[in-house]
Amino acid sequence: MKVLIVGGGGREHAIAYCVAKSSKVEKIYCAPGNAGIAELAECVPIGAMEFEKLTAFAKEKEIDLAIVGMDDPLVGGLVDELEAAGIRTFGPKKNAAILEGSKAFSKDLMKKYNIPTAGYENFDNAEDALKYLETAKFPIVLKADGLALGKGVLICNTLEEAKDGVKTIMLDKKFGESGNTMVIEEFMTGREVSVLSFVDGNTIKTMTSAQDHKRAKDGDQGLNTGGMGTFSPSPFYTKEVEEFCNEHVYQKTVDAMKAEGRPFKGIIFFGLMLTEEGPKVLEYNARFGDPEAQVVLPRMKNDLIDVVEACIDGTLDQIDLEFEDNAAVCVVLASDGYPLEYKKGIPITGFEEFKKHDGYYCFHAGTKFDGGQIVTNGGRVLGITAKGATLKEARANAYKATEWIQFENKYMRNDIGKAIDEA
To answer: Residues with Cβ < 8 Å from 195, sequence gap 6 or more?
Structure first.
């Protein structure tokens, strides 16, 4: 098979790693890819939102399967365009990707189909939102409705903070058109757990659990980021939690989307909060999480191509998803200053160490080639992932491997998976 992967981050590198392991695959292309993906695939200088160019390329190269990794092209309808051109494509169509593309839509869906989530109200003008805040309980959560690179969520402790938040999202348009509508949501407390799943329109098969660390600094301080590291599995995702979610969340979401005339094929990412009243849905994503994919996919025993094709063909019920009985931890190496300002173009060394050790992975996110050398090209630069028999062992291995990589403004959190030590 000839496979095209759309995207250029750590998630797409993890997907490419799995695709490359499949005996069914002869050639991988990635648009636009990055310096790490280039070891596994032919990188093509086409942006993920250049739909016409991607479709023309897929037809020209007679691509057998396209995998769309990123949220923007999914929400924008790339799957529809590729399928219309006769390209088998993995990912939800535009009318199903709204599950991630609009927080207001997903909250209304959960309310309608009785899927547990935080109490909320949707607003399409700032005046009404401000009026509502006068009677609200604090802390409270403000969410830009559309895509915002994982940063469009503000937790506000006071009325003043919340008023500033409304201004930031709806009036100053910090997140662009994503802030035309806003969700104001009750603040939930508890442990967060991420559960990724494969969906074929009817059947859902969940993967092993994970937990992300969103904040930039140790102790969950600092600004929200796209994710500073993950671990898998989560010791807090117990059998009881899984059984509750199987009954009240997972299948109900798939059935709800089908009932709405928006059958979902692809990946549903369930962001869960384990509250005192039980698990509740924080958010849905319509694709693999990044960096969650970097700890979940290396632990998957199945051939990813088999699972992806089953999702497309509606035969997922025939697949038995299997994961290794071990653990993985990913520590993101970022450019100092992320998520605000940071330098690019800084040379990176140490990659050769990963070829000497099994169970260690260096997934590239913000990298590129410059004069034959790999340099930094983004805020999140690399995802250093390691396996271990236990979470503690995987964590120690991952932090050991971060020392192999050197670049001038390297920054990371030092407490990824620290909750494991307290579990």
So the answer is: 206, 207, 209, 210, 237, 245, 250, 269, 270, 272
| CA distances from residue 146 to 57, 104, 178, 274, 324 in whole angstroms, order as listed | 29, 9, 4, 24, 35
CATH number of 262's domain: 3.30.470.20
- Site of tokens 């059935």: 255
By C-alpha distance, which of 113, 167, 166 is closest to 142?
166
Query: CA-CA distance, 12 to 69, in Å (whole number)?
Result: 6
Range of the domain at 89: 2-93
Which of 93, 110, 140 corresponds to the end of one domain? 93
Q: In the structure encoding, which two tokens stand for residue 230, read together?
A: 């993950």
Tokens of 196: 């990724």
Dist. CA 393–CA 416, nearest whole Å:
13
Same domain, residue pair 310 and 206: yes
Domain count, the chain: 4
104 within some domain: no
313 in the same domain as 198: yes
- Report yes or no on whether pTM surpasses 0.90: yes
Q: Which two tokens stand for residue 352?
A: 């050769």
Under a CB-based contact definition with an 8 Å cutoff, are residues 294 and 11 in contact?
yes
The pLDDT tens digits along the chain (423 residues) read 999 999 999 999 999 999 999 999 999 999 999 999 999 999 999 999 999 999 999 999 999 999 999 999 999 999 999 999 999 999 999 999 999 999 999 999 999 999 999 999 999 999 999 999 999 999 999 999 998 876 788 999 999 999 999 999 999 999 999 999 999 999 999 999 999 999 999 999 999 999 999 999 999 999 888 899 999 999 999 999 999 999 999 999 999 999 999 999 999 999 999 999 999 999 999 999 999 999 999 999 999 999 999 999 999 999 999 999 999 999 999 999 999 999 999 999 999 999 999 999 999 999 999 998 999 999 999 999 999 999 999 999 999 999 999 999 999 999 999 877 655
Give domain status of residue 109, yes or no: no
Residue 408's CATH number: 3.90.600.10
